Amino acid sequence: MTIQFVAVMEMDGSAIVNADDTLYLVRPPYDAEHRILVQEPDVQKALLQFGFVAADTSFESWSSLIRHLNHVVRRARAAAGQDMQNIDPTAQVLDAAPPDVLAKYLDRVKEEFIASMQLELAEKILLAMLQSDNVMQRIELRSRVVDLMTLLMQCKRDYAAWQSSLHDQFFDSLQRSGKMDEASTLTSLILDRGSIWAFAR
Length: 201
Description:
2 domains; 12% strand; 8 helices; six-stranded antiparallel beta sheet
């Protein structure tokens, strides 16, 4: 089997892949439960709205794909940690920074971190700014922080809603194909017998 990378979100390890001409969204911990069928419009939305970047690497197995994704996540988070050190949004730094420097912090939060869906990093910076008197006493900066926090929360909701819609599409397809009853029967059998090997008996 050849598995083709289509798109990846490096910070959280989610990826869209093509396996046997079928598109899947895969997410940590990368078991079957976290593998969701997607369609081409979902790929476009992931690339345009949710910070995924196009990729074209091929893998011979799911295990090699997962090893690569784990490496991608470690690398991205190490880079984010370096970004955090470069910004250094500690209370002491924020309280001493002039307005133009604070404004540049906010520019980067919006244009780089939120735009690429590095939401945890963006949130950490914004929360630090909300606790800084130097920021909060300046009306324009305070307004920008609040606006960016609102934008960040909306991005989180939109991403969660998109993933939820993919789940709904998956279960709808099971229902239409008549496989929902089969899946429900199998689940009930496993629960009744207390073993994943129940289906083999």
